[in-house]
Amino acid sequence: MPKFASSNPDAKLTYLNGHFGYFLKCSISTNALGLVRNINFYDSDNNLYEDLRPQDVKNSFDAKSLIPSLETFFQLHPNFTYNYFLGDSGFDADDNYAYLYKKNIMPIINLNPRNSQGLPEPGFNEFGVPLCPNDPSLPMTYDGICREKGRADRIKYLCPKSKKINSNGKLEYELSCKDPCTTSKCGRIKNITVHHNYRFNTSMPRDSVKWQKLYRLRTICERSIAQIKNFIQINTSKVRNTVSLKSDILLACISQLISFILIYKSGNSDKPLAIKTLIS
After folding, report:
1. Beta strand pairing status for 106-109 and 84-87?
2. Whether residues 18 and 50 fall in one domain
């Protein structure tokens, strides 16, 4: 499939809402009342890796988009402070936890099964090198440093029975293990970051009542964004021009804030998103 739409090159091939399509992406941040606080438009790099499931591609993009979005937000609103960040499991990534902790924001993020596959965890030898989960006598193979914009550097280790080969000018992996611990074609990979336990060592236990109550508030954000989509009729929109699409989103969010002001002034501040009630 082409990597962008013929009608608009800005609409990139992306996996979203359970299927592939051509989309313009933006992130919308709300507070716990569902009120829009920030809109950030960004482009996909179209790295649709063949060894990832479509859902993994989406989760990977969500994880990478958080830090740039929040950086933009705090640059625009340097005096804003928050105690918690509520996000779904798509944001479950080491770098996001490290970033939020540095901002003194407690992450309320559910664990993503993509990052917890139930695979046996490799041990470590006296030099800090991870070992094969099935045979601890075999140290994993160092494969360099992974560096990506907006993410912490990670040391990459490969399965000791995996090697890279050049096949018709293309780099591929050859796995000689008779009993692999993963279905990946390149065997087990272990990426190590400096603070790779942030995901599990949360300041607030995920099974605590307070954590669960806070996490349930995340649905307010989902409902708010669904409402904004409804404002601009996103499911039936025939608009293809990038500027027009962005304008529609911005105007819809502005309309939400104006509606909230009217609701508040009318004495119905206990129902900040009851826009249908206001209209009726």
Report:
1. parallel
2. yes
Q: Are residues 102 and 208 in the same domain?
A: yes
Helix (H) or strand (E) holding 145: strand 141-146
Q: At 109, give phi and psi (nearest 5°).
A: -130, 130
- Whether 141 and 160 have beta carbons less than 8 Å apart is answered as yes
Rounded Cα distance between 186 and 60, Å, is 19
Spatial CA neighbour of 215 closest among 59, 66, 88: 88
The residue from 168, 196, 224 where one domain ends is 196
* pTM of the shown model: 0.56
**Band (115; pLDDT cuts 50, 70, 90):** low
How many structural domains is the chain composed of?
2
Domain shared by 104 and 213, yes or no? yes
Once rounded to an integer, what is the mean pLDDT over residues 197-209?
66
137 burial level (CB within 10 Å; 0-12, 13-18, 19+): exposed
Q: Which residues contact 195 (CB under 8 A, 6 or more apart)?
A: 94, 97, 98, 152
Q: Which has the closest alpha carbon to 159: 173, 146, 169, 172?
A: 173
Task: Name the residue range of residue 192's domain.
Answer: 119-196
Which DSSP string corresponds to 197-262?
A: TTTTS-SS-TTSHHHHHHHHTHHHHHHHHHHHHHHTTTTT-----HHHHHHHHHHHHHHHHHHHHH
Q: State whether 15 and 84 are in the same domain.
A: yes
State both tokens at 162: 């995996």
For residues 25 and 43, what is the distance between their CA atoms, to the nearest angstrom? Answer: 6
